Amino acid sequence: MREAKEQNMLKRPFGDKIRTARKRKGLSLMVVSERAGISLSYLSQIENGRREPPDDKTIATLAVLLEIDIAELLKIAHQDKLRVELGLLNLGPKKRELAITLQRSWDELSELDASEIEKILSKFSN
Questions:
Q1: What pLDDT score does 109 carry?
Q2: 29 and 63 co-located in one domain
Q3: Based on the domain organization, do 23 and 71 belong to the same domain?
Q4: Together in a domain, 116 and 80
Q5: Is the pTM of this model over 0.85?
Q6: Do 41 and 52 belong to one domain?
Q7: What region, left, alpha or beta, does residue 26 occupy, with left being phi > 0 and alpha being psi -120 to 50 degrees?
Q8: Taking the chain, what is the end-to-end CA distance rounded to the nearest angstrom?
């Protein structure tokens, strides 16, 4: 049950929509990232649900590039952002601050750091 809830929280319709449209058009991550003015790694993280949708201007650029209705893509992006924010609102202040800190620093963590955090968290999941 807990795993299903975690998977649902990680699921990001915006990234799925971008990936599906990109593949439908036969475009590589590199081509789309260059044309949209974002890094390849950032686009990959968006598609895989590891990053929030970008700003509205970039979303509009992606929509035009991938031939997706801009209003539809903006709606999906805002729903993604809202789901994450609402999830955080349900946490107490200490947990919310910890979740935000972890999310902001995630890309800079080494594998060793991630392993240490995983060890600590595993004590609470059993």
A1: 83
A2: yes
A3: yes
A4: no
A5: no
A6: yes
A7: left
A8: 13
pLDDT at position 73 is 96
If we measure between CA atoms, which residue out of 23, 42, 26 comes closest to residue 34? 42
Which single residue is written with the structure tokens 């946490």? 91
The angle, 0 to 180 degrees and rounded to 10, between the axes of the packed helices 29-36 and 56-66 is: 130
Cα distance between residue 46 and residue 14, in whole Å:
8
- State pLDDT tens for residues 60-100: 999 999 999 999 999 999 888 777 666 776 777 888 788 77
Q: What integer is the mean pLDDT of 44-48?
A: 93
Total number of domains constituting the chain:
2
With beta carbons less than 8 A apart as the criterion, state whether 101 and 23 touch: no
